[in-house]
UniProtKB/TrEMBL annotation, chain A:
SUPFAM superfamilies to which the protein is assigned, alphabetical: LuxS/MPP-like metallohydrolase
Coiled-coil regions, chain positions: 372-429
Keywords: Coiled coil
GO molecular function: metal ion binding
UniProt region (Disordered), positions on chain: 29-50
InterPro entries listed in its UniProt record: Metalloenz_LuxS/M16 (IPR011249), MPP/UQCRC_Complex (IPR050361), Pept_M16_N (IPR011765), Peptidase_M16_C (IPR007863)
Gene Ontology, cellular component aspect: mitochondrion
Protein's name in the database: Mitochondrial-processing peptidase subunit alpha
Protein's GO biological process: protein processing involved in protein targeting to mitochondrion
TrEMBL record, chain B:
Protein name: Mitochondrial-processing peptidase subunit beta
Any GO BP annotation: protein processing involved in protein targeting to mitochondrion
Keyword Mitochondrion attached: yes
Single GO MF annotation: metalloendopeptidase activity
Peptidase M16 C-terminal domain location: 198-384
Main location: mitochondrion
GO CC terms in record: mitochondrion
Originating species: Dictyostelium firmibasis
Keywords, comma-separated and alphabetical: Hydrolase, Metal-binding, Metalloprotease, Mitochondrion, Protease, Zinc
Cell compartment(s), UniProt: Mitochondrion
Pfam families membership: Peptidase_M16, Peptidase_M16_C
């Protein structure tokens, strides 16, 4: 019997363990026994080939209430091969370094089969000398194909549709969100399980997303699978089944998402509200998510009809990185060539955009109030249902029916109880942070073709920058930017503060978001206003140059990622029909002057803002859009001379 | 229930596949530019992959991490990584470094692991010389001012608090502590609180002098960089770095990490979920079977409630976990070190399902060791190849890949070699490696949360020789 003296190694003391710790040791070969009977004293690094389990002593230590701690030792099973050579019995040699008796070569040595073989192709050198350019073609049926060759064996592939919540009328809200959710589902040719398993095996980052102006499906694969993926994408939009069961399941997913978003005081909720304030109901103002009632109204027929109307040649862009353009065109034509250019009832984008106008205004709410309202409505519905069942019970004497009724009543009773509890919990919730967003209208992405409004906006965004009180990462995150130095650093009550630019085709929003501890929102707002209103007087050339460089490098760094490159090309084409290369964009950024930025900020701050705030409770003071306009008017003479 | 679902799994897997794709010529994998490597007189290795474009990543990778520490100075490697941004003779304070980098639109970052430290910058192409200059300056001439060391303690302590609040970090630190008890790998990267509070300037200086020597530095770059130019710049800027008088191999051979089958359970009934890990001793970086074990890792797979695949996940364990609602999430990990490694499953689950989940995990190990089939192995080879080659997205990832491979393997694996090595794996290899590493072994087990129902160690141990699948 092995009688090792047990000690809890000092490491354990350093981990923050409470009392309820159970530590058990299985010591594998603590004593390095040797089963070679030769005298290899200077070789005692080798352990024997032993695979026994001997149960050692069991000892009680550290008695705690919840668990009895036991420590026991085993003599375990370490595998390691030793052998002695025939001609010299005193010498022990390790023949296989690996514990697993492998036929392969260690990884630090070149694979023997590849010795002398060319591991990098010849054309590589020649290829390397040239920079690749994005190439664009339009097929006869209107589908636009954009691709850019790369230096790697991987492609990013994306299918982009010019459709989204912007196009939804009040009757069919939620359609595009559900079309997105029904991607990679069963088609007439393949089952869901086949599609998913196949994609899981060969692709990375497979995803579908829907937004206000675009729906897309994208993923990354090795070059060899390009054709297969295009055939899968085509199958998805040409012969979907949209089974009722799948649809029901996805409607539930959407409703859960809706509940999650209104439940949290997250950024997403704020920006969704902001879009409504800025653009009103309908068009760009439509929230990306619909309400549960709206989702429940979506039917399979409506989905198929939208698919027919919107997924037409003129609305489709296919974007690929890491492939030859001619090959991509050929494949797209093969799989998507039979899609019609348009349908008679396909809505035109211009008519939608013409109906969308910037409005502005204020939306202020207390944290949790939206969620509470939602829960109260749900509770009301449940109570009504309960009432109905009770009425039924009283008027109905049929036994069978009665039993069912009883069950339903019980279920509803439970649900009501749960709902009441969640409301109670919500009321107890103590939010300690208040958030505020101010945004101003700016030109849309489609103007890039004509002027540099958007470029100026991007530079202004980096110049204002931002940061948060718990910073992550080192230099390069805008630590020297205005909002970080003058707002985040100057008050430790500010949690975070950032400048943003939300870009859409025909309009964009430039603004600043701010989160502070409860009670300090007003202080934070003052600091932000100071920056916004005084910027044109105080900014200097050095920070402009820094902002320009940082914006350029951000764009270029993002474009390194193949999925971003793929997305970027498609967005440009969807928005203004051509592609501005990063070099062109960088040149435009270089040309931005102090005067450009001054003009822009003066124009922005004098426009009618959209303000959204979610505060911890009613006592927090905010600044509304109207008050803001007042302040600007009063000080106009000193500010914008 | 579990048996029925498994029968179903096998039947669907053997079904003729509706997708058939012809085998392809793998020569497209040769288009990636070659990585050029130069060793300088002081031992520094410079490695670049030139892909042109507008951006370059340049990094210094050091064969130094918490494994080179002792009990007394545990945490110093990480502390050093924090202090290296705090000022040199030429750049007197943290702000001067920050402003210089932000003015050129670059970024600088760093991390410390158990075996490596890395400092890497991403810059526009004309700033590559500036990046080399900054990196060489902070690595050779940092002042480590005592006043700034005092300030930094709080930052590191709050980082420590943050890590202690992350269940997965705690579980993996515990796992190392138990599996490598008594060995350097068992210690944490941040070090114990008393060390964070007491590490001195001398300790930091001593650690950098001893470990940041030429033979243990790799300067790797990717993107818009020219190898020859970079070599010249490094030669000039890193001229003061000395070759170590003890060879790297000699230094490391004195550090031995023994795996111990053992268990640490920390019961906390306040937590809603259990987080646990079950691991066995795995393979070091250079092991010939490295890719076989990566393949086994892929076969066991990962799953969480969020993934779109849901019950349609290809992995057998994933499907069982999803259909029987055993877990919130699980993942399969394989961590290599120079002389050892860890392989196992990490799981997050409801307290009442934990015994089933642990059992299913280890049963899956046994299934792979005894009766995995060709179809499944071939599919997962495809997946492993795709995942391995597609992870190098952007210059930072490429730069990191080069740095890590040069430090661990002394060379760079070309995509074509990765293909060759994965392609030659057979079912027999998978079963051989799984049998040796995963069958009849004493695992290291660790868990936190409401553990009343957590399986006893002998139960877990016993499942590793369970024959009834």
């Amino acid at each position: 019997m092995n009688s090792n003296i047990l000690k809890v190694h000092s490491i354990f003391k350093k981990l923050n363990f409470g009392n309820n710790i159970k530590i058990l040791n299985v010591n594998q070969n603590n004593t390095k026994s040797k089963n070679n009977n030769n005298n290899n004293n200077n070789n005692n690094n080798y352990s024997s080939f032993s695979n026994r389990n001997e149960i050692g002593l069991v000892k009680r230590v550290n008695k705690s209430i919840l668990s009895q701690s036991t420590i026991s030792t085993y003599k375990g099973n370490r595998l390691s091969y030793t052998t002695s050579t025939n001609d010299n019995k005193d010498k022990v040699e390790e023949i296989v370094k690996s514990t697993t008796n492998s036929p392969f070569t260690p990884i630090n040595i070149l694979h023997p089969k590849l010795v002398g073989e060319k591991l990098y192709s010849n054309e590589n050198d020649a290829n390397n000398q040239k920079e690749f350019k994005a190439e664009i073609s339009t097929l006869p049926n209107g589908i636009k194909v954009v691709s850019k060759q790369s230096h790697e064996g991987v492609c990013a592939i994306g299918l982009y549709i010019n459709a989204g919540t912007k196009y939804e009328s009040s009757e069919d809200r939620g359609i595009f969100n559900l079309l997105e959710k029904m991607t990679f589902k069963e088609t007439k040719n393949n089952t869901t399980s086949e599609i998913i398993k196949e994609l899981e095996e060969i692709s990375m980052n497979a995803m579908a997303s829907s937004s206000r102006e675009m729906i897309n499906v994208s993923l990354e694969v090795l070059r060899k699978d390009l054709e297969f993926i295009l055939s899968i994408f085509a199958d998805q939009i040409k012969s979907p089944k949209y089974l009722e069961d799948d649809l029901k399941e996805q409607i539930e997913v959407c409703i859960r998402n809706y509940e999650m978003i209104i439940n949290s005081s997250c950024d997403q909720l704020m920006t969704e509200i902001l879009m409504g304030v800025a653009f009103g109901n309908g068009g760009l103002g439509n929230l990306v998510m619909a309400t549960p009632e709206q989702y429940l109204r979506v039917t399979r027929e409506k989905l198929l009809d939208s698919l027919r109307k919107y997924y037409v040649g003129k609305n489709i862009v296919i974007s690929v990185t890491g492939a030859e353009h001619s090959q991509v065109i050929e494949l797209v034509d093969k799989y998507f060539g039979d899609i019609p250019y348009t349908q008679k009832d396909t809505p035109s984008e211009d008519s939608i955009d013409a109906a969308t106008n910037y409005i502005g205004g204020t939306d202020a709410s207390v944290a949790g109030s939206i969620h509470k309202e939602y829960l109260n409505n749900q509770l009301q519905l449940l109570l009504e249902q309960q009432q109905k069942l009770n009425d039924n019970k009283n008027s109905n004497n049929d036994n069978n029916n009665n039993n069912e009724n009883e069950n339903d009543l019980e279920m509803i009773g439970k649900e009501i109880e749960q709902m009441k509890q969640s409301i109670e919990r919500l009321e107890k919730q103590n939010t300690k942070e208040s958030s505020w967003i101010i945004a101003f209208p700016h030109s849309g992405l489609s103007t890039v073709a004509e002027n540099k409004d958007i470029i100026n906006g991007l530079v202004l965004q980096s110049l204002l920058g931002g940061g948060s009180s718990y910073s992550t990462g080192g230099p390069g995150k805008g630590m020297q930017s205005r909002l970080n130095l003058n707002v985040v650093y100057s008050s430790h009550h500010v949690k975070n503060c950032h400048a943003f630019l939300f870009v859409f085709n025909k309009a964009s929003l430039f603004g600043v978001s701010l989160t502070t501890e409860f009670g300090y929102l007003q202080d934070g707002i003052e600091l932000v206003l100071q920056e916004l209103l005084m910027l044109s007087k105080t900014m200097n050339q050095e920070e402009l140059e820094r902002a320009k460089r940082s914006q350029k490098s951000q764009i270029l760094q993002n474009l390194e990622m193949r999925s971003v490159q793929c997305d970027d090309m498609a967005r440009h084409i969807l928005s203004f029909g051509s592609y501005k290369s990063p070099e062109q964009i960088c040149k435009l950024i270089d040309s931005v002057t102090l005067d450009d930025i001054k003009k822009l900020i003066n124009k922005l701050v004098q426009s009618n803002p959209s303000v959204v705030s979610i505060v911890a409770n009613e006592n927090e003071t905010i600044l509304t859009a109207e008050q803001y306009v007042q302040i600007v008017k009063q000080n106009a003479s000193t500010l914008f001379k | 229930m579990s048996n029925i679902s498994k029968l179903f799994v096998n039947s669907t897997k053997n079904f003729s596949r509706s997708f058939s794709r012809k085998t392809v010529d793998p020569s497209f994998l040769k288009i990636t530019p070659e990585t050029k490597i130069t060793t300088l007189p002081n031992g520094i290795r410079v490695a670049t992959e030139q892909t042109y474009g507008e951006v370059a990543s340049v990094g210094v990778w050091v064969d130094s991490g918490s494994v080179y520490e002792t009990e007394k100075n545990n945490g110093v490697a990480h502390f050093l990584e924090h202090m290296i941004f705090k000022g040199t003779a030429k750049r007197p304070n943290p702000q001067s470094i920050e402003t210089e980098i932000e003015n050129m639109g670059g970024s600088l970052n760093a991390f410390t692991s158990r075996e490596h430290s890395a400092y890497y910058m991403k810059v526009l192409k004309d700033n590559v010389p500036n990046a080399v200059d900054i990196l060489s300056d902070i690595l050779q001439n940092s002042k480590f001012e005592t006043s700034l060391i005092e300030q930094e303690r709080d930052t590191i302590l709050s980082e420590n608090d943050y890590i202690q609040s992350k269940e997965d970090e705690v579980v993996f630190d515990q796992l190392h502590a138990t599996a490598f008890q008594g060995s350097p790998l068992g210690r944490t990267i941040l070090g114990p609180v008393e060390n964070i509070k007491s590490i001195t300037r001398d300790q930091i200086q001593e650690f950098i002098n001893e470990n940041y020597t030429g033979d243990r530095l790799v300067i790797s770059a990717a993107g818009a960089v020219n190898h020859e130019q970079l070599v010249e710049q490094v030669k000039e800027k890193f001229a003061n770095v000395k070759m170590s008088n003890v060879s790297k191999e000699q230094k490391r051979s004195t550090i031995v990490n023994d795996f111990v089958g053992s268990e640490i359970l920390v019961r906390d009934d306040e937590q809603p979920l259990i987080h646990f890990a079950v691991a066995v001793k795995a393979l070091p970086w250079t092991d010939p079977d490295y890719f076989v074990l990566e393949l086994i890792q892929t076969m066991i797979g990962n799953w969480n409630r969020g993934i779109a695949a849901g019950k349609n996940i290809a992995s057998n364990l994933g499907e069982i976990v999803a259909t029987e609602n055993l877990a919130e999430s699980y993942s399969t990990f394989f961590t290599s070190y120079q002389d050892t490694g860890l392989f196992g499953n990490y799981g997050v689950c409801q307290p009442e399902r934990v015994d089933d989940l642990v059992a299913e995990m280890i049963k899956e190990w046994q299934r792979i060791a005894t009766c995995c089939n060709k179809n499944e192995v071939e599919r997962n080879k495809q997946k492993l190849l795709a995942n391995t080659l597609m992870q190098y997205d952007g210059t930072s990832k490429v730069c990191e890949g080069i740095g890590r491979q040069i430090l661990t393997l002394g060379r760079r694996l070309s995509p074509f070699e990765v293909y060759t090595r994965i392609n030659e794996i057979t079912v027999a290899d998978v079963q051989r490696v799984a049998t040796t590493l995963l069958r009849d072994v004493s695992p290291a087990v660790t868990a936190i949360g409401p553990l009343a129902n957590f399986p006893d160690y002998n139960f877990t141990r016993g499942f590793t020789y369970w024959n009834r699948l």
